[in-house]
Amino acid sequence: MKLLIIEDNKDLQGIYQHNFQAAGHTVAVADNGLDGLNVAVEFQPDIVLLDIMTPEMDGYGFLTALHNNTSLTPFVVACSNISQADDIEAAKQAGAEVFLRKSDYVGAELIKAVEEAYAARDMRPKQIIEEPAPIDDEQF
Hints:
The chain has 140 residues and is an alpha/beta fold. It has five helices and five strands, in the order E-H-E-H-E-H-E-H-E-H.
């Protein structure tokens, strides 16, 4: 999978990048939401791991701009230590599909949580619309 990590903490960014690459993912990184938009358009990620509190453009701004100004529809996992109910709801209202508290996930736990959330998205039932059978004119 192609994963975009938007994280302003260089240490965490490096750890996330290393761990997801070691797990077999293709990874791009950005330091903030504004850079993340540019990278997303170029990279076309399947998943965005998004820190909410970033400089220049925060995660909420990134989500709004992503949905209003691009045709991209990546699976967005907000990952932040701000985790009040209002913050979680605001992230989901802005377009994040999952919210994870950074302090709850370390190393392989974060990879597993992101992969499982993404897989669950793919397992949701999809509406199947069948084409009607052609009408045989000789029957009438």
